[in-house]
Amino acid sequence: MPHSDPKTLVSTQWLADHLKDPDLRIIDASWYMPADNRDPKAEYDAAHIPGARFFDIDEISDLRSDLPHMAPPVEKFMSRMRAMGIGDGHQVVVYDGAGVFSAARVWWLFRLMGKMDIAVLDGGLPKWQAEGRPVEDLPPVIRDRHMTVSRQAHMIKDVTQVAAAAKLGDWQILDARSPGRFAGSEPEPREGLRGGHIPNSKNLPFGELLTAEGTMKDQAGLRVAFDAAGADLNRPVIASCGSGVTAAVICLALERLGHDRHAIYDGSWSEWGMYNDLRVATGED
């Protein structure tokens, strides 16, 4: 499997080689938990990869929902992308300021909308800057481009579908949160949520899919991580996490392994942990 695949993951060298391609569009999708006390837009304004547009995960979402950054309606996604000068025929590369974190969420959103020509930058901005590659503080030049969208409903699951999967076992549920949050032994970062996990789900912390340098593991390493979590790569997967962000890292890893039967529980623990009528499991199992 080649390292760089413009539909999943590309290296910093790949991006450097293609930086001036006329149909390349770069997105900074940095997003952080409130406890991190970081302002992704301010960081983008100060320094971003040349030509990058900023994608606000919290704003380009379904603001009708009380849950954080739920997938936006098709019309909103199209209008925001058009305003950013991203449309049909573009190859998109998305990165974030953590390495491989929130960029995967935007990769997944594009695919949810039927746009396949998008890849995550492996190692993100930290790797790019560590290698001494160029950054700028200039706003991008925007040229309008129409975008055609075809929403892929099979890639997203709601609470009813996840509850059925937990009961029937026809889809395996993989939780990308930390072991402590999964077990219910660590408090949730969002107030008002119970501790624990969806019954019959398995824990695969998203960091287990990454190297110590913050890049995604190779195919062999990914297989080891899924196997250690008790996942069966011959069965479909619903990925979950705290709010649907790091679950996308699981989906990206699955796609790298040629496993395309995966979906995200968009509400994730922000929804499941809120409602007392939904059963919660604790401990490691």
What does this 3D model show about the protein?
This protein is α/β, with parallel strands linked by helices and 285 residues long. The chain has two domains: 9-151, 3-Layer(aba) Sandwich (Oxidized Rhodanese, domain 1), CATH 3.40.250.10; 154-272, Oxidized Rhodanese, domain 1 (3-Layer(aba) Sandwich), CATH 3.40.250.10. The protein contains ten helices and ten strands. The model has no long low-confidence stretch (mean pLDDT 96). It has helices at residues 12-18, 40-46, 74-83, 103-112, 124-130, 159-168, 179-183, 219-228, 247-256, 268-272; strands at residues 9-10, 24-28, 53-54, 91-95, 118-121, 156-157, 172-175, 202-203, 237-240, 262-265. α9 (247-256) links the parallel β9 (237-240) and β10. It is globular. The protein has a five-stranded parallel β-sheet with strand order 1-5-4-2-3. The chain has a five-stranded parallel β-sheet with strand order 6-10-9-7-8.
Could you give a short account of the major beta sheet?
A: 5 strands, parallel
Number of self-contained structural domains: 2
Uncertain spans = none
SSE order, one letter for each helix or strand = EHEHEHEHEHEHEHEHEHEH
Strand order of the largest sheet: 1-5-4-2-3
Q: What is the gist of this entry?
A:
The chain is an alpha/beta fold and 285 residues long. 28% of the residues lie in helices and 12% in strands. The strands form 2 sheets. It has a 5-stranded parallel β-sheet. Strands 6-10-9-7-8 form a 5-stranded parallel β-sheet.
